Amino acid sequence: MDTSNLPLLPTHITTLLTSHPTINTIITMAGIQSSLSFTTPSTTTPSSIATEVTTNLTAPMIIAHLTIPHLLSLPGPSTFILVSSGLAFLPVPLYPVYCPTKAGIHSFAVALRAQLGDTRCRVVELAPPYVDTALDAKHREKVMELQGGEEKAMKPMGLEKYLDTAMEGLREEGNVEVTTGFSEMEAGVWRGAFGPVMERLGVKG
Fold first, then answer.
1. Is the CB of residue 99 less than 8 Å from the CB of residue 91?
2. What is the pLDDT of residue 107?
3. What is the pLDDT of residues 73-131, one digit of tens each?
4. Which residues, other chains included, contact 54 with Cβ-Cβ below 8 Å and sequence gap of 6+?
5. What does the pLDDT average to over 4-33?
6. 68: three-class secondary structure by DSSP
7. Are 183 and 195 in contact (CB under 8 A)?
8. Is the dihedral of CA 192, 185, 190, 148 positive or negative?
9. What b/e sequence results for 37-65 when a residue is b if at least 16 CB atoms lie within 10 Å of its CB, and e otherwise?
10. Which of 95, 98, 130, 162 is catalytic?
């Protein structure tokens, strides 16, 4: 499913839910991470920027719009999982589009969780730290250079280790933000700063 093709999403989701009417867990995981500079226009294009925003932020919102009614109609509990990033809490200049989209996913997860607070649909945010995947393959060497070389650069968490940690977090009852390592620290800082404000506003996200 090409989630960047927004007009086709309703058809794809209808087909999915018709074929699997008892599905009770939806995970939105597609993502694009581009390293670019707005001081050097040749590093990107308007189309590339739009595709990154659409894939990372707009599509998950539309998928939620299309699937939440199904999840709420089920006789038992259900789960909607959004994948953000540790970079949702840290605007790194190398990723001036990716970071804001992931910050948007975090904000959306909090808002959606608050809206569904009195239902049996659980909203979970996966916020991975830096994990060894192909997401940053095109610019990993550049990032290491900016950190002083491979020896000084932040090392990614192994994929298998992260998957084990994430699955453990997903199995933990009542856990709404699955974080680890650097992303756990960042999410904790965010909750510490904004949690009291949300509580005063009556937001239980």
1. yes
2. 97
3. 999 999 999 999 999 999 989 999 999 999 999 999 999 999 999 999 999 999 998 88
4. 3, 4, 6
5. 95
6. helix
7. no
8. positive
9. eeeeeeebeeeeeeebbbbbbbbbebbbe
10. 98
Q: Report pLDDT digits (tens) over 148-191.
A: 777 767 787 788 998 999 899 888 888 899 999 889 999 999 98
Report the chain's C-alpha Rg in angstroms.
18
Integer Cα distance of 181 and 85 in angstroms = 12
* Best CA proximity match to 33, nearest among 58, 51, 6: 51
Alpha-helical runs (H) found in 74-181: 98-115, 140-146, 159-171
98 is a catalytic site residue: yes
Q: Of 111, 110, 86, 117, which Cα lies nearest the Cα of 99?
A: 86
For residues 149 and 12, which has the higher predicted lDDT (pLDDT)?
Answer: 12
Helix H or strand E encompassing 192:
helix 182-201
Specify the 3-state DSSP secondary structure of 89: coil
